[in-house]
Amino acid sequence: MYASKEISVFDIIGPNMIGPSSSHTAGALRIARLAKNMVKSSIKQVKFILYGSFAETYQGHGTDHALVGGMLGFDTEDYRIKESFEYAKKAGLHYIFETNSAKQDIHPNTVDIIITNENDEETTITGVSIGGGRAVIKKINGVDIDLSGDYHTLVIRHKDLPGVVAGVTNVLSQFDINIAFMKLYRENKGTIAYSIIETDQPINEDVIDKIEEFQSVFDAFLIEKL
Questions:
Q1: Residue 133: pLDDT band by 50, 70, 90 thresholds?
Q2: 124, 142 contact by CB (below 8 A)
């Protein structure tokens, strides 16, 4: 007898959403919301580079409206998604869409999001819509990661040095925060690393302030459970 695999109802019917496709609208919006949460400063401009089926159908399926809506912080059930371009204009958010049909060895629902903040600093994030309105962030600034937003998540950009991770986990322990999953990614040994910590409890700004006191930490930010 084979053990049955647990399947979420969202894997079958997807979430409540505005738009014709859970992969092309809800999933796209989720990618953009996650990307927005990974930038601390105000966002001035965003460029979306779409691949595969995203590139082929992004206008007809409303992927473009969903991506802009996600950058504005809209939820999948928000009726403003259909008019997200107008809301972006009011918010002073400039956006650009490009397509890339040349790159074939890539998930068909992939988007690169290049975010420019008010200080003209760029952050590049790659996300994939995996079906049922779910999404995964696969890269940040060229570093391979794996972030779903299914948990309260702490993302820390720091120097790849001994003792940094131990210091961070000690801070979480001081605030009685239980770690569900913890993953470490780095560009190269001894350079920049990203620690992604998913927790059972919400994380408040006091935790961020304490972690950012470490000299080896560049910055830390929260991604609330979506």
A1: confident
A2: yes
Is the distance from CB of 138 to CB of 82 less than 8 angstroms? no
Token look-up 């859970």 returns: 22
Residue 223: Cβ within 10 Å count? 23
pLDDT tens for 170-184 read 999 999 999 999 999
Note the pLDDT of residue 107: 84
Q: Which residues of 107-137 are buried (b: 16+ CB within 10 A; e: fewer)?
A: bebbbbbbbbbeeeeebbbbbbbbbbbbbbb
Predicted confidence (pLDDT) per residue in 81-118, tens digit: 999 999 999 999 999 999 998 777 788 899 999 999 99
User: Residue 94 corresponds to which tokens in the numbers above?
Assistant: 């400039």
User: Do 181 and 198 meet the contact criterion of CB atoms below 8 Å apart?
Assistant: yes
What is the Cα–Cα distance from 72 to 76, expressed in whole angstroms? 12
* 161, two tokens: 């040095």
Could you count the other beta carbons within 10 Å of the beta carbon of residue 215? 9
Burial (CB < 10 A; 0-12, 13-18, 19+), residue 34, is: buried
Q: How many residues does this entry show for the chain?
A: 226
60's CB contacts (< 8 A; 6+ apart) are: none
The contacts found for 185-190 with CB under 8 angstroms, 24 or more apart, are 185/143, 185/144, 185/145, 186/143, 186/160, 187/142, 187/143, 187/160, 188/160, 189/160, 190/159, 190/160, 190/161
